[in-house]
Specification:
single chain, alpha/beta, 4-stranded parallel sheet, about 10% strand
Amino acid sequence: MKIVGIIGPYISGFNRRLIDHNIANAQYVTIAIARHFAENSLVGFFAPHSHTARFEKLADAPEAYYHALDDAIYDRACDGFVILPGWEGSGGARRDKARAENKGKPIFELKSYTEEDMLCLLIHLHAWSLSEEQND
C-alpha cells in the first residue's frame, strides 16, 4: 500500500467556521480515497486535519509541535502527497509542499472538489500506485 499525505489549509486565521470547513474538505478527500481503494488496498492516506482536528483549542501545544509531528509522520509513512484546493494561501501547506518537493516525493494536485476533479485525482493515484508497485 502506498500512503499519501494530505496537504491543505487548516488554520485560516483561527476562524472556527473556516477551520471546520478545511477539516471537512480533507475528510471528503480521505473518504473518497478509502472508498476507491477499499477493495485493492493500493493507496491509503494520512491527514493531519483529522488526526489533530481542533487541537489548536483542545491541547496546549504550539504550532511548531504539530509541524514536527506532521514531518515525522510524513517522513516515515508517506510515499506521495495530495495538495488540496487553496493550499497556496496557507503558510503550513506551502511549507509541507516545498518539503515534499525537496524530498522528491510525488505530488498530486486536486484542482477542485468537483466529482470530475476527484475522479481525475483517484485515477492518477491508481496509476501511480500500480507503477510504483511494479518498481518495488
